[in-house]
């Protein structure tokens, strides 16, 4: 059973230049079944994985012009993707190659080129995720951030206020769970006369316990973004960073960093509003498809001819149909003369076959291409006062722990009290870390139709979530993604005999239409708590 959609909000913006927000943006904890995407087929999974991997190459727009190089990457991808579990299946047919290549040439490349002309280095990553490399290389801001964070570490270590979690691997210098709003205790009066924050009145049985908190709520800060998006001012204090030396040290830096995040947040919020997370380029195949066997040697010859056609820029015509491919799966053996068999000096090598099953149905001959988001005032942060939760975090990997994986598996930030809709992560310093990744998954509609449903979608038959891809967490890279995506960090050491670390600045964006308590109305929690 799904929680009802959030109520409509219109009166709140009657006196604002911002268009009224009709509904809350989708949130994973009250996502209606109609807002859940259908599962990705295995075909679309490897298509998206290849596209994202190719676009993660340096200067990929130029490499896209080299068809020989592109074919080499296709050949490498086919070797990995042909194994689905313990079965060898047919992958990368002519429709797949044409669809992925057209997606890059006619979808991603023109949009990235237009951003470059505007002086922006933002790029789309996997669907609904945006990234920017060399994020803080201008004006020495990255050096200022490192210097300020070193000073903050000294303050925390000397005062004993630093906090370690996850077996002493994660150091939180600003943690939203520390000194949040405590319902019935947090107040705004210096004399403690008025208790202003009461527990929310949610009467939804099970959901009251799981999706909401009646004890506490994160404290978002208010960030005022200029109408042109070129500057930001912190209108309130930042929770756990409210002392005057800390304000003078870090507030100007965080204001500039958030300003650089605004264009990426605008695109992520536009993707959410446009329901891009539900986009599927290919459909699931029919429930009772034809299954046949294809001799592996025949497949290799046809595969090489297909790549040759692609490299020459010709129309892709090579097929892997069941016609003359080896017959149906049931016809495994043929009658042979036993006398002739004994006379053979060497036994003939056993023919190997590839199991061929229709794994996807294309919506058109080349499928649906990726399309850029439609930016609008309803989701833009420009000219708005944004409720933001700030987090400063270090992840340290000693040699005894050569890999860090998010504790507890997949994570979603906050509950419905805060209604976080988007997250921005900036890795400002990294050492001795190789191939760091952030993996994403989404809730899906469970709709098994036949015994091969799990094979077609690379899922268990009762899966509630599906992985949709991963993004590299490179040094000096910033990314934004919707909170609809559960995420998991994977940070392996490059050299196991040396320690390593990743240092992050994280912004959580509250739903613009959600009336959450903010720090303009609540005094510094640490100094204004009532004893029980």
UniProtKB/TrEMBL annotation:
InterPro entries: DUF4246, DUF4246_C
Entry superkingdom: Eukaryota
Region annotated Disordered, chain positions: 317-348
Compositionally biased intervals (Acidic residues): 328-338
Domain called DUF4246: residue spans: 126-515
Family annotation (PANTHER family): FE2OG DIOXYGENASE DOMAIN-CONTAINING PROTEIN, IFI3P
Protein name: DUF4246 domain-containing protein
């Amino acid at each position: 059973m799904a929680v009802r959609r959030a109520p409509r909000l219109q009166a709140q913006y009657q006196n604002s230049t911002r268009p009224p927000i009709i509904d809350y943006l989708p949130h994973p904890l009250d996502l209606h079944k109609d807002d859940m995407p259908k599962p990705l087929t295995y075909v679309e999974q490897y298509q998206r994985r290849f596209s994202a991997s190719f676009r993660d190459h340096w200067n990929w727009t130029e490499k896209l012009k080299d068809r020989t190089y592109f074919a080499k990457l296709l050949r490498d991808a086919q070797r990995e993707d042909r194994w689905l579990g313990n079965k060898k299946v047919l992958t990368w047919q002519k429709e797949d190659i044409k669809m992925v290549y057209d997606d890059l040439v006619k979808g991603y490349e023109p949009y990235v080129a237009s951003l470059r002309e505007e002086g922006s280095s933002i790029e789309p990553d996997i669907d609904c995720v945006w990234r920017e490399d060399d994020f803080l290389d201008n004006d020495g801001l990255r050096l200022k951030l490192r210097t300020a964070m070193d000073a903050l570490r000294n303050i925390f270590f000397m005062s004993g206020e630093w906090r370690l979690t996850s077996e002493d691997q994660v150091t939180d210098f600003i943690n939203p769970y520390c000194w949040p709003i405590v319902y019935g205790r947090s107040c705004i009066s210096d004399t403690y006369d008025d208790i202003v924050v009461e527990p929310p009145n949610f009467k939804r049985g099970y959901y009251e316990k799981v999706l909401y908190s009646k004890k506490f709520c994160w404290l978002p800060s208010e960030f005022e973004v200029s109408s042109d998006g070129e500057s930001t001012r912190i209108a309130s204090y930042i929770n756990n960073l409210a002392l005057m030396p800390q304000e003078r040290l870090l507030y100007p830096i965080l204001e500039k960093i958030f300003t650089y995040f605004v264009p990426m947040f605008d695109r992520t919020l536009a993707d959410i509003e446009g329901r891009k997370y539900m986009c599927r380029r290919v459909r699931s195949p029919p429930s009772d498809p034809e299954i046949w066997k294809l001799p592996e040697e025949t497949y290799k010859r046809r595969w090489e001819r297909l790549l040759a056609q692609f490299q020459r820029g010709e129309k892709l015509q090579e097929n892997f149909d069941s016609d003359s491919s080896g017959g149906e799966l049931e016809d495994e053996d043929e009658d042979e003369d036993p006398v002739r068999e004994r006379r053979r000096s060497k036994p003939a090598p056993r023919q190997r076959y590839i199991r061929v099953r229709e794994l996807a149905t294309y919506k058109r001959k080349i499928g649906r291409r990726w399309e850029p988001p439609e930016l609008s005032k309803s989701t833009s942060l420009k000219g708005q006062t944004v409720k933001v939760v700030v987090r400063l975090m270090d992840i340290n990997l000693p040699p005894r722990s050569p890999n860090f994986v998010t504790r507890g598996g997949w994570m979603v930030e906050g509950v419905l009290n805060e209604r976080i809709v988007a997250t921005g992560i900036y890795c400002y310093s990294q050492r001795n870390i190789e191939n760091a990744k952030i993996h994403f998954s989404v809730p899906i509609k469970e709709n098994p139709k036949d015994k091969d449903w799990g094979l077609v979608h690379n899922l268990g038959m009762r899966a509630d979530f599906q992985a949709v891809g991963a993004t590299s967490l490179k040094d000096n890279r910033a990314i934004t993604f919707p909170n609809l995506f559960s995420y998991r960090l994977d940070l392996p050491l490059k050299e196991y005999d040396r320690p390593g670390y990743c240092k992050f600045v994280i912004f959580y964006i509250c739903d613009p239409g959600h009336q959450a308590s903010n720090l303009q109305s609540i005094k510094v929690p640490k100094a204004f708590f009532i004893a029980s």
